[in-house]
Write a structure and sequence with these properties.
CATH superfamily of the largest domain: Fructose-1,6-Bisphosphatase, subunit A, domain 1
CATH topology of the largest domain: Fructose-1,6-Bisphosphatase, Chain A, domain 1
Structural class: alpha+beta
Number of strands: 15
Distance between the termini: 44 Å
CATH architecture of the largest domain: 2-Layer Sandwich
Order of helices and strands: HEEHEEEHEEEEEEHEHEHEEH
Largest sheet: 8 strands, mixed
Strand order of the largest sheet: 4-3-5-6-7-8-9-10
Radius of gyration: 17 Å
């Protein structure tokens, strides 16, 4: 069977639509949660979303693999592997902050291929491939930045970095014009794709970065690990995304 980009992307948007029905039903209600082994919280909404999306994928594309935050991996050696983060930013979701997102990605032959970042409360959605990203029916584009010293930098939390990484990140943080830590989770990659911020620097899992890589690249940005290598595989890794590719090497030098 042939799987074309248009049909896969259309289905990815369907998955995001279905996820939003569940997250909006629970948002700003009484939400019970528990801590996972890594001490991050999980809600019933996280589980319900992932269960539904997995069932939809298996029905539509039974030969495809799936990797999700809550229920692990299945058939990850398949040519196409779907990745699911049902609620990225669960703390924001629990606290009623409308900056959580649902992330849907497709990996093709080990490389991120398609992605969707969806924030249902604000009705913000970025979707597409490394060729083009659509945001609210318009083509999303990153903005130019003449140097790191003029850039705005975002990250999720200092605590995600180990001691060595923290020192490197601080080198970059001290150089930029402004920095923001916490509160936006993967929503800030959509912000970067729309040209509102310039750099995002952090550590991500495959169910996060596989959706994000196409969004950043398709909007005109550049995203690599901290060694400047393309994003591939399935492991947890450091990430740097820049809206203007001309500042990428300068940012990498500060992280070296």
């Amino acid at each position: 069977m042939t799987f074309n980009e248009e049909s896969l992307l259309g289905f990815a948007n369907e998955l995001a639509d279905e996820a939003s029905k569940i997250t909006l039903k629970h948002f700003r209600s009484t939400i019970h949660f528990e801590d996972k082994v890594d001490q991050s919280p999980v809600t019933q909404a996280d589980r319900d979303v992932e269960e539904l999306l997995r069932a939809m994928i298996k029905k539509k594309y039974p030969s495809h693999g799936i990797i999700g935050e809550e229920y692990g991996s299945e058939n990850e050696k398949a040519e196409f592997v779907w990745t699911l983060d049902p609620i990225d930013g669960t703390v924001s979701f629990i606290n009623g902050v409308p900056l959580f997102t649902t992330l849907v990605g497709v990996i093709k032959q080990g490389l991120p291929f398609l992605g969707v970042i969806d924030q249902p409360v604000l009705k913000d959605r970025w979707s597409g491939s490394d060729k083009r990203i659509i945001y609210k029916s318009n083509v999303a584009k990153t903005r130019p930045c003449e140097g790191v010293e003029l850039a705005s930098l975002y990250t999720t939390a200092h605590e995600i970095f180990d001691q060595s990484e923290s020192i490197k990140f601080k080198n970059l943080e001290n150089k930029v014009r402004s920095s923001r830590v916490g509160g936006t989770d993967c929503y800030h990659y959509g912000m970067l794709a729309s040209g509102w911020i310039d750099i995002v620097c952090e550590k991500l899992s495959v169910y996060e970065y596989s959706a994000i890589v196409p969004i950043v690249k398709g909007a005109g940005g550049l995203i690599t690990n901290w060694n400047g290598q393309i994003i591939s595989g399935f492991d947890y890794k450091t990430i740097i995304a820049v809206g203007d590719p001309t500042i990428h090497n300068q940012a990498l030098d500060l992280l070296s």
